[in-house]
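Note to self: keep these together.
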Amino acid sequence: MEYGATYNTDIGIRKSTNQDSVAIRIVDTPDGQVAFGIVCDGMGGLAKGELASKEVITAFCRWFDEEFITQVLDNSFSALRLRDDWNSIIQTENRLLGIYGSDNNIMLGTTVSAILMYKDEFYIVHVGDSRVYELHDNVRILTKDQTFVAREVAAGRMTEAEAKVDPRRSVLLQCVGASATVTPDFLKGKVQKDAVYFVCSDGFRHQISDQEIMEKLGPKNINNMEELKYGCVYLTELVKNRKETDNITVAAIKTN
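Structure:
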């Protein structure tokens, strides 16, 4: 499998800082290309959200550049080891950000959603309400929002329509840095050929439909990386025009 990738991040129309952080890696290995994408959304109402998101991104990128590549080269990679590595990063960052917040009398936190594609498998780690999508024949959301309203919808106590306008729609059940304990979601699946996978902060998706996403990022409409980049920028500007007030970030990876 071969990969091409791009990203776009925007401060949006209201925030004074961009508290989102994003990173993408595509590298050649003896086992073929590997792709990694991650988005962290520093908590909008919390001080130093941009610090929290950057610190978690940095920790994951350090793992990819050093530990993961070493595992590939010495053939020691496994799904179980990956899960342990990612969980260790999240628990360590949750503790360190918690200590920093306590020492400075502030509260800071971040979501984290990341996807690794290796040997035609994808692996996802997820905390919060950023999302990972798969675009192939249709739009498939691979992650589940860890929010109050998502939990209420799943329990049948709230409809999707009610959730979209509920004032608690941005309330997270957990995040890295501001939660006493964090239990990440881990997912695994087969990478689809001729598909687009993207990771986004919640600001990217609130004001657009699945149809609009497919029209601009769907693999049948993307012939090169310039068109993929254009789709990310176009949808970002679209949600800004529709008065989305949050930071907006998307990292997109196309498979070939």
